[in-house]
Amino acid sequence: MKESVPRAFSYVQAKKTELGIARVLDVSDIHVEIVDLLGDRVEADVAAARAGDHSTKKL
Q1: Per-residue confidence (pLDDT) for residue 55, from 0 to 100
Q2: Alpha helices in 1-59 (DSSP H)
Q3: What is the residue-level pLDDT of the chain in tens, covering all 59 positions?
Q4: Residue 42, CA distances (Å) to 4, 20, 37, 58 in order
Q5: What pLDDT is stored for residue 32 in this prediction?
Q6: How far is CA 28 from its chain centroid?
Q7: What are the phi and psi torsion angles at 13 (to 5°)?
Q8: pTM of structure
Q9: How far is 6 from 12, CA to CA, in rounded Å?
Q10: Whether the Cβ atoms of residue 19 and residue 8 lie closer than 8 Å to each other
Q11: Alpha carbons 20 and 32: distance in angstroms, whole number
């Protein structure tokens, strides 16, 4: 997961205009926190949410 986050962010940065999110990325801070709540290091689904947005989107 540690390598996946920077790789995904680089991809989004490269495609931000095509994805229609250039302005949002240019004026927003991005914070990612990954927590293994069970401590068992088992792969799990990943989700993302925007600050101020109470919806969660599966990745």
Answers
A1: 47
A2: 4-19, 22-27
A3: 678 888 988 999 999 999 999 999 899 888 888 777 777 776 766 666 555 554 444 54
A4: 16, 34, 10, 18
A5: 81
A6: 13
A7: -60, -40
A8: 0.55
A9: 10
A10: no
A11: 21
